[in-house]
Design a protein that fits this description.
This protein is an alpha/beta fold and about 425 residues long. Helix content is about 50%, strand content about 5%.
Length: about 425
């Protein structure tokens, strides 16, 4: 594509990165077949090619975007299937990130939209606040009909969440190999048992899992809202916590793939920043996904369950790690079934299921139908967002919980309804 940015605009490292990717796009359209919203709606404006044109027009003009442009950009899931499919190497995240930041600072959203986004940014990123909100949502369930639109959807989702005490796994190994654990946000409130299972798995392999004191949310939720200053604040908090930690770590781990994908890409937040970019690069170089740390191991007592493995988009297209979790599950004695249309997003996509509930529900229904086609006993995934979004039918658990169970750990709570062992 030809572009028409001014030299002053290109002095901005983020905008210069976006312009480079705009020029790389040849409008071949291969990406459209991998875009969930284009597959559902068939509208060019709801596919990567159409969104790229809208982003270019918006960024070159330096003006406030039109409501129509915001409408179609908001529909993007950031599943990044288009990046994987692109033969020209267009790095779509560099475009949508700059576009979202521009919308955030140049567009006046309706008050209800601003309120919803504030709640996501300031409540869901804090485990204690999130737990309180979910509890209040349960108590106030009879009054949810009084809330407008998506606030009502958020309240109903919150009421459906299973919340327990917030905890972090203690060190369960005295091994000299240490891994720093990022605490994360919502997962601590909804499923602390995931990190506990990971701690046991790593201990059996000679690793100590050490909570990274002072760190918090990875920042991906606010980053995808275009709130760049807040995303940087979370990143700085994580980097400083890592640098303060006593001793050397083999890796930094966070057990949700959406979070680890964001942390691996952290240096892009600080493009052109001589102080923080080098520190972000050092931190990101230590970040490992769960599947990169766990070696295959046979089961002590194989549980012959049929597992439909749902690979999160953040794992497929963000981290670009393919097949690792399937190999781990197979080695542990599970019968792993491939899900049809496994490349298409389930509709969770961080806060997408709250901000775009209609599209998210259609994608969820489509994903669950494809899962049902392989007749599984259980669904396994590696991202808390996917896990919660797809819950409510066939039991669904984190991969780590199944592996831990196969190696002698406790049976996952979600599987107690399955009679056979």
């Amino acid at each position: 594509m030809r572009t028409n940015f001014s030299l002053a605009q290109l002095a901005d490292r983020h905008l210069a990165d976006a312009e480079k990717n705009l020029r790389a796009c040849v409008h071949c359209g291969i990406c459209t077949a991998t875009c969930p919203t284009y597959v559902l709606l068939g509208d060019e404006r709801d596919g990567p090619r159409g969104r790229i044109v809208m982003m270019q027009n918006m960024l070159e003009s330096r003006e406030a975007p039109t409501p129509q442009t915001v409408h179609h950009l908001d529909r993007c899931l950031s599943c990044l299937g288009c990046r994987t499919a692109c033969p020209s190497g267009v790095d779509y995240p560099r475009l949508i990130d700059v576009a979202r930041a521009h919308v955030e600072t140049h567009y006046a959203r309706p008050w209800s939209d601003r309120a919803l986004r504030w709640l996501i940014a300031h409540v869901l990123t804090q485990p204690a606040r999130a737990r309180t909100m979910f509890t209040l949502a349960k108590i106030s369930a009879p009054l949810h009909f009084l809330l407008p639109g998506r606030l009502r959807v958020m309240a109903r989702k919150g009421a459906a969440m299973k919340v327990g005490p917030i905890s972090s796994p203690a060190e369960v190994s005295s091994g000299t190999k240490r891994i720093a654990l990022m605490p994360g946000c919502v997962q601590k409130a909804l499923a602390p048992e995931i990190d506990e299972a990971v701690a046991r798995l790593l201990a059996r392999r000679g690793f100590s899992l050490v909570p990274l004191e002072g760190a918090g949310c990875c920042g991906s939720l606010v980053h995808h809202l275009g709130r760049e200053d807040e995303a940087k604040a979370w990143a700085i908090r994580a980097i400083e916590s890592f640098e303060r930690a006593d001793g050397d770590f083999e890796a930094v781990l966070i057990t949700a793939t959406g979070c680890s994908s964001h942390l691996k890409d952290l240096a892009h937040l600080f493009a052109g920043d001589p102080k923080w970019k080098p520190r972000a690069l050092r931190f990101a170089a230590k970040v490992k996904d769960f599947s990169e740390l766990i070696s295959p191991r046979g089961a002590e007592n194989p549980h012959r369950l049929r597992v439909a493995y749902h690979a999160p988009c953040s794992l497929q297209h963000g981290l670009r790690i393919l097949g690792a979790n399937e190999k781990l599950l197979t080695a542990a004695g599970f019968d792993v079934a491939a899900i049809p249309e496994g490349h298409l997003c389930c509709g969770s996509a961080g806060s997408y299921s709250i901000l775009q509930p209609e599209l998210a529900d259609v994608l969820r229904t489509r994903k669950l139908a494809n899962i049902a086609a392989v007749e599984p006993d259980v669904i396994a995934t590696a991202n808390i967002g996917c896990l919660e979004h797809l819950s409510g039918g066939t039991p669904i658990v984190h991969v780590a919980e199944l592996l831990d169970w196969a190696e002698g750990g406790p049976k996952p709570l979600a599987l107690h309804q399955i009679a056979r062992n």
